[in-house]
Amino acid sequence: MNAGDLELLRQLHVPHETIDRLKSFVQILDEASAGQNLISAGTRPQLWQRHILDSLQLLPLAEGTGSWLDVGTGAGFPGLVIAIAEPNRQMILAEPRALRVGFLREVASKLHLDNVAVHQKKVQLIASPPVSVISARAVAPLTNLIESTTHLADEQTLWLLMKGRSARSELEQARATWQGEFRLVPSLTDPDAAIVVASGLKRRVKR
After folding, report:
1. How does residue 183 score in pLDDT terms, banded at 50, 70 and 90?
2. What's the Rg (C-alpha) of the chain?
3. Cα–Cα distances in angstroms (integers) from residue 181 to residues 6, 85, 204, in the given order
4. Phi and psi (nearest 5°) for 108?
């Protein structure tokens, strides 16, 4: 963690106790990475910016403590980071890969994250009451992400979908199929990336 990372943590109003828990998570991640490729080697020197802070930037976009579903959590981004930062919010992690699921459950156990439920299945197979927030990072095209999660949403659900350079074009494609409120929020950690924020989504009726 460098001075720039600390400044962004301050801007996001992350408490010291949360930073300590995140440091514990990073330590577990480092140890587990020796056995499986949890994050790419190229991002390890910028782990806090590329993964931790990248995940934390979703917090100001999702007020309240309603349940949160993270699709394709992988090594814990953004879902596990959000669960650490907001222990009073129920976090559902959808991850079909067995090794990743084992890691997520290990972290949840070691850090006593009682708010985390890890599902080893594709999100289309998860049954749950409507959630307040749905997030995903680099999982699937935007239209497919919305399609695969609408059974877990209602008119109040907020989607926070993290995208790279394709954000604007994917948003235009999604608007051809889905109507509702959409906006792009520039990423705080990557000038080429953006977060697609959506709510009130309904499939457009073909005429």
Report:
1. very high
2. 16
3. 33, 27, 13
4. -60, -40
Q: What is the value of pTM for the model shown? A: 0.94
What are 108's two structure tokens? 């949840």
Phi, psi of 119 (to 5 degrees): -110, 120
Q: Which amino acid is at 145?
A: L
What CA–CA distances, in Å, run from 182 to 36, 148, 171, 188, 192? 37, 18, 8, 19, 19
pLDDT at position 178 over 70: yes
**Domains of the chain by start residue, with CATH:** 3-203 (3.40.50.150)
d(CA 10, CA 125): 38
In whole angstroms, what is the distance from residue 35 CA to residue 197 CA? 35
The whole-number pLDDT of residue 40 equals 77
Quote the pLDDT of residue 47. 86
Convert the pLDDT of each residue in 52-90 to its tens digit: 999 999 999 998 889 999 999 999 999 999 999 999 999
> How big is the CA angle at 168 (ends 163 and 173), to the nearest 5 degrees?
100
* Look-up of token digits 């992350």: 14
